[in-house]
Every structure is written in C-alpha cells, then in structure tokens.
Write a structure and sequence with these properties.
By secondary structure, the protein is α/β, with parallel strands linked by helices. The protein has 8 helices and 13 strands. The strands form 2 sheets. A 9-stranded mixed beta sheet has the order 5-4-1-8-9-10-11-12-13, with helices on both faces. A hairpin with a 4-residue loop joins strand 6 and strand 7.
C-alpha cells in the first residue's frame, strides 16, 4: 500500500469523517499500590466510575484530534449508559439513536485495577455490547471506519464490507476469520494480538509499549517511531489514543511516518494521565509535545 503524500494541516479541505463501530462501557477503576497476584487481596486507595470501552475511547480520542465522529454501538437501560453517552456527546461525537441503540439489560463495563507504576489489569463484561448486530449498523458516508473486537465478530465483518478505509484494532485478542483480516486496510495490534491473527495483514501497526511502534507492510517493517519521554501514570487508554491518532492522521493525508510518530505521542500522553477518556489528548497537545 503506497503511503499518501503529507499535506499541511491548514490546507486540508475539511475535517475527516470517521465512523467508529465498537463498545460502550463504564470503567470501574480501583487505584492500588501494586497489582494483586493470583489469590491475593489488595486494598484500593481510590475508586471511580469513568466512561470507557475501546469503541467509545477511540471515538472520543478521534473527536479531540479533529475528526467528525459517528458512533455505532449499544448501551443498556441502566444509568451507566447515560454516563458513557454523556461523555461522548460532550466531546462532539454523534451518539444519536440510531446509530447508538438502547437495549434492555446492563451497559457494558470493565473492572480495572491500576497500580502506582501505571500497569493495569482489566476484566471486561460485554453487557449491551454483545447485542450490536450487523443489521444495526448505520455507518453514514465516512472517509474511514474504525472497529475493535469488544463487539460480535460478525458485526465487525459487516462494517469491513465497505469501500471506506477500514482499520481494525484487533483487541482484545480473539479468534477471527482470515477473510476479515484480508478486508482490512490497516490492523493495529500489540505483540500478543499479532500472534493471535490467523493471517498476515496487508498493513500492520505493531505497538511496542515504551519502545514505540512499527509499521509492517506484508510483515516487513517500513516505518518505526518512538514515543516522547513521559512519566507513566495509567496505561489504560494508551492503545486507544494511539489507534485513533494513527487513523485520523492518515485520513488527514499525512504520511505514514508522520502518522506513526503522532500516534506514539498520543499514546504517551494518554499513559501520563489517570483514567481512560479523561487521559485522551487533543491535536494541539500532540503538536506541542512533538515540538510543532
């Protein structure tokens, strides 16, 4: 896949239009001194209800980075749905019904323990996210579509069957058909998620934590970037910030090298702050940490 030519931001004709197909959760976050070992009980110093879910996180991140974002997803009939939709609405994300559906039962949630080192442990309870079906999709007319794997795989497959640029953040790792990977223009994964893929994507962004990220075309490295130095506080949404920034930067017609560099910076900024959506940076903050 040929990399597009970089275009100065001020010359872009309009904001890129992005549809996010994914999960809407509330994160139940406990702050601990260290993560518990198997069978160990630890005491939390703080507990918060925060808007989250990989889909919602990436939608919020993309909106803060300058995209016009439309959300496709499901929430339950409980008050948690109000929390996550209210947060997205404040970021300017379109959460109209449809394409966001209110279904019976509980909104998805994540149980998250965050250590003082910034490391975390996460258990996701799908809730309403499991009810997003292919026929529910209302994608609009986007420049790009971004999906993750916290919703049914068949719904992700339906979202990928379009002419728009399609990115799959293949997280959390789960079995997916090779045909889905083959439809993707870009797949974003960490090392564990890469090993779980059934075939090699055309274009892969492999995140390496503190080492940054590499871009692989057909499995061969074509670009590499390192993040700016930050003090890690909470890594919960770092991958979501990275993914959203990489996709938005590409839709802004930046080169892949520049997009990868900006994505690493966005991920580092998110890791330097507490919480998932509260930690997501704006385009101006990414520009500032990169020195321009």
């Amino acid at each position: 896949m040929a990399a597009p030519q970089a275009v100065p931001q001020e010359r872009l004709p309009r904001r890129p239009r992005l549809t996010v197909v994914g999960s809407l959760n509330v994160d139940l976050v406990a702050r601990v001194e260290k993560l518990p070992l198997a069978g160990e009980t630890v005491t939390a110093s703080r507990f918060d209800y925060l808007p989250g879910g990989k889909g919602a996180n990436q939608a919020a991140a993309a909106a803060r980075l300058g995209a016009d974002v439309r959300m496709n997803g499901c929430v339950g009939s409980d008050r948690l749905g109000t929390i996550v939709l209210g947060a997205l609405s404040r970021d300017g994300v379109d959460v109209s019904e449809p394409p966001v559906y209110h279904v019976g039962g509980d909104t998805g949630l994540a149980l998250i323990s965050v250590a003082e080192s910034g490391e975390n442990q996460i258990v996701v309870v799908p809730g309403a996210n499991a009810h997003l079906e292919p026929d529910d999709l209302d994608l609009g007319e986007p420049d790009g579509i971004l999906a993750q794997l916290e919703i049914p795989v068949e719904t992700v497959e339906a979202a990928a069957a379009t002419d728009a640029f399609f990115c799959l953040n293949a997280a959390p790792a789960k079995p997916i058909p090779p045909s889905l990977v083959e439809r993707c223009d870009l797949v974003v994964v960490n090392r564990f998620e890469l090993d779980a893929l059934p075939t090699t994507p055309r274009l892969t962004a492999l995140t390496l934590g503190e080492e940054g990220a590499v871009l692989l075309e057909g499995g061969s490295e074509v670009a590499r970037a390192q993040p700016p130095q930050v003090d890690a506080v909470d890594e919960t949404a770092a991958g979501d910030a990275f993914t959203a920034c990489l996709v938005v930067s590409h839709l802004e017609e930046r080169s892949w090298e520049d997009a990868l560099r900006r994505a690493c910076a966005a991920g580092a900024l998110a890791a330097s702050r507490a919480g998932a959506q509260p930690s997501l940076p704006t385009a101006a903050e990414v520009d500032e940490i990169l020195g321009g």
